[in-house]
Design goal:
The structure is a single chain. Helix 1 crosses helix 3 and helix 5 runs antiparallel to helix 10. 49% of the residues lie in helices and 20% in strands. The protein has a 6-stranded antiparallel beta sheet with strand order 5-4-3-8-7-6, with helices on both faces. A two-stranded antiparallel sheet has the order 1-2. The longest helix is centred in the last third of the chain and has 20 residues. The radius of gyration is 20 Å and the shape is globular. It is of the alpha+beta class. It is built from 10 helices and 8 strands. Keywords: DNA-binding, Transcription, Transcription regulation. InterPro entries: GAF-like_dom_sf, HTH_MetabolicPath_Reg, Tscrpt_reg_IclR_C, Tscrpt_reg_IclR_N, WH-like_DNA-bd_sf, WH_DNA-bd_sf. This is Helix-turn-helix domain-containing protein.
């Protein structure tokens, strides 16, 4: 991993990044193997991270700690995309009110996509709500590909690397030809369909995306559907407000 040049900080960030990808947690040995940092240094860094509650330790496993939540919560609270998108997401929830579906606001973070807000209807099964992850590879989900399709292909290749770029570029071309709509079927959960649209202004790369995922919604998963039109208008409204609120 390319670092900032501040060695200790770079190593701490490598450790917390690895832990952020592991639901069960990782041992010091596993962290050493994944990062290439020697075990002695790993243990010293983990001790400091545990002290600052960035990491928790239990039975030899290390996981992200509650301290990490403080930073993330502060970031989300002041994030303009989240604040501006919320009323539009609520409006979309009303549009799908009689269907088992979830409306999410997605934010690209490096080569990942993070769902920063989710709301669901009363008919959405609890297991769908509870089992749905909130972070995905940006090229491996509907909302992520909606965002990537707004990037110039060379920028996508730099972000993903050649192998991932070659695998996803035909799907990005299809999204561009489909007017920006990204569609997915049974990708995160069997029977769950999804449609996403990018939040972008003019020809600029997307700042995020709105995504609706639901059961028995195949009829809505097309660019000509009423839901798709609502999503497009919502994303245009969010993008316009974000651009207007940004100091020139």
């Amino acid at each position: 991993m390319q670092g900032s040049g501040v060695g200790v900080l770079d190593k701490c960030m490598e450790l917390t990044t690895c832990l952020s990808f592991s639901a069960r947690g990782l041992t010091a040995l596993e962290l050493a193997r994944q990062t290439g940092i020697d075990r002695g240094t790993i243990h010293r860094l983990l001790k400091a991270l545990v002290y600052w509650k960035q990491v928790e330790a239990e039975d030899g496993l290390y996981r992200l700690g509650a301290g990490a939540l403080l930073s993330a919560s502060s970031y989300l609270t002041r994030l303009p995309l989240r604040r501006v998108a919320l009323p539009y997401a609520i409006d979309l929830q009303n549009v799908i009110s009689d269907r088992p579906a979830i409306v999410s606001v997605a934010l690209p973070v490096g080569d990942q996509i993070v769902l920063i807000d989710r709301m669901w209807t009363a008919t959405t099964p609890f297991n769908v709500i509870a089992d749905l992850d909130d972070r995905f590879d940006i090229d491996g989900c509907t909302s992520g590909r909606a965002v990537l399709a707004t990037f110039p292909p060379p920028a996508v290749e730099v972000l993903l690397g050649q192998e991932r770029f070659m695998a996803v570029e035909p799907r990005l071309d299809a999204i561009r030809e489909n007017g920006g709509y990204s569609l997915g079927y049974s990708e995160q959960r069997k029977g769950l369909s999804s449609i996403a649209y990018p939040i972008c202004h003019a020809d600029r790369p997307a700042m995020g995306a709105l995504v609706v995922a639901g059961l028995d919604m195949e009829a809505d998963m097309r660019a000509s559907s009423s839901l798709a039109h609502h999503m497009q208008r919502a994303c245009a409204g969010i993008a316009e407000r974000l651009v207007m609120s940004t100091p020139s």
